[in-house]
Amino acid sequence: DIQMTQSPSTVSASVGDRVTITCRASQNIDTWLAWYQQKPGKAPKILIYKASGLQSGVPSRFSGGGSGTDFTLTISSLQPDDFATYYCQHYKTSSRTFGQGTKVEIK
Amino acid sequence: EVQLVESGGGLVQPGGSLRLSCAASGFTIGTYWMSWVRQAPGKGLEWVANIKPDGSEKNFVDSVKGRFTISRDNAKNSLSLQMDSLRPEDTGVYFCARDWPAQGCDYWGLGTLVTVSS
């Protein structure tokens, strides 16, 4: 099975900061990767699909990159609404796997 | 408007069974893969299972293989997860999601809580 590893587990940042989260796959997944945002008590929300595709309605300050095994999610200028936990998920195979999550907290 | 509504969660003893349902509206599930994803209290997301549009392919995370069954009724626009031989580690919120093979899970329900405890 393909394993997904995110880093860091937690990032402390201020409004306006640029934040980058990394996701590494245990084997090549091409660009079959999505990023999700989840707030406490809520369902996840998709932000990015196919590594860099911005989901409709998602602010342009979110961007994704990478291919193969190494991927990034970048928030160009952190906003108050962005404090949440972020997950990557591969869909290279029919059996999907999530990363363990990265919590973006207020510094 | 696309909506997914899960039901069927509750408290069950270890070794017991529970059947979760997911009612879809605003789209026809018959053209989409559908997934179940769970989240243990205070923990991250875990993909549990998915099913092909025509039901011919089903996939499960290793920890539930042989215990959970996923099914769909395209005529009723609904998805189910039959959970048998439940363990305390199966406790969590279970979400159903619309699953695009090329895009990931673009719509999610609000989830239903399953608690396995004596």
Summarize the structure.
The complex is a heterodimer of chains A (107) and B (118). With 107 residues, chain A is mostly beta strands. Chain A is built from no helices and eleven strands.
Explained architecture:
The complex is a heterodimer of chains A (107) and B (118). Chain A is mainly beta. The model of chain A has no long low-confidence stretch (mean pLDDT 97). In chain A, strand 4 and strand 5 form a beta hairpin. Chain A is 0% helix and 50% strand. Chain A is globular. In chain A, the strands form two sheets. In chain A, strands 2, 4, 5, 6, 9, 10 and 11 form a seven-stranded mixed beta sheet that branches. Chain A has a four-stranded antiparallel beta sheet with strand order 1-3-8-7, with no helix packed on it. Chain B starts with a strand and ends with a strand. Chain B is built from no helices and eleven strands. In chain B, the strands form two sheets. In chain B, strands 2, 4, 5, 6, 9, 10 and 11 form a seven-stranded mixed beta sheet that branches. Chain B has a four-stranded antiparallel beta sheet with strand order 1-3-8-7, with no helix packed on it. Chain B is an all-beta fold and 118 residues long. In chain B, 40% of the residues are buried. Chain B is globular. The chains are: A mainly beta (107), B mainly beta (118).
